[in-house]
Amino acid sequence: MKLTDLKPTIASQPESKIVIPEKQQSPLHRRTTNGVYKLLRRPQKTAPPVPAVTGVPRSELDLPFYRKLGRTDLTVSCLGLGGGGHISSDDTLYAFDRGVNYFFYSSDLHHYLYSSMGEALRKLCGRGSSYRDKVVLATVTYLVKTPEAVLASLLDQFVDLKMDYIDVFFWGWIDTDNEHDFNKCMAVSNDLRGSNSVYQRTIERMFETSERMKKMGIVRYIGASFHSHDLANQWLNSPLLDVVMVRHNVAHRTAQRKVFPYLDPQDPQRPGIVTFKSAGMRSHLWEPPPLLPSGCWRPSVPDLYRYSLSQNSVDIALAGWTERKHIDEAIAGVEKGKLTAEELDYLDLYGDLHRNRLKRDEIPRERLIYRS
Question: What architecture is the 45-285+292-367 domain classified under in CATH?
């Protein structure tokens, strides 16, 4: 299936009023007679055929670009864009034009990095935007861990992005040292999400309300970004938490033991799953480890996204792109489909070499994959 077969069309929408400075104009924007640049749709290339793998039906290697986010009613792109790479608003709009519809925004920690995408999000998600129902906006607070103080974070986000509602509001950086505070935050989930909530009525007293806000509420779903996989496991089946975000990559595979095996991809009530740090944390995982034998496959960053997206029940791999060529490369990678069992096994070994878990004479040669 081609990416173009899956992408929701925006052809029938009113003309965008997104203004792109002349010097930042992209090939996907064309000047209209009134001087406003209009979003155009880039023709999509046909997805390359998935290599034949003995005993594995092609359908099992397909990687749909759009999918339902767990038990929510949100349809999301499998690649999400976070602002941690200080991406520009122009390139954020480019990502949206290429089909990425999940955007992750921080209002406190590293806000300077995220702020560069703010103008794009105001145009896509701001009050009155004709694109709002095509976008899934996730916001996070990392510094607030009490129900009483969360109102301040919400106010900051509504003032900053000038929006009607948030699709997924995340509690960020959940670990064992703030577990007690997180439990208190989760206890107010039903006061925070949905229409006519306690927090919505407070926000409405401070801002002029809108039909969208009345219908959606200020927060539609609750998420949490876990740095403790044990805590993530404990909250997988809670009706108070709709989306779970965990760290995962080839060198840090704890989620493959403590989170992913406990999810049934066919369960309509399972939470949505988002991964982050696919390309590494303190090291760049696309750079080969010192002990990797010469001629072995060196995975690209898009391959590392595919590694996370090939895991059980993972809906979104969150990316921190810095420029548009990274967006094109990631989408082209997804079009190749899931990784095969042999490729996944090799990348497990590759990750172990990055973590110095093996000595040179301990490397199992039969698990290596050689590519030019």
Answer: Alpha-Beta Barrel (3.20)
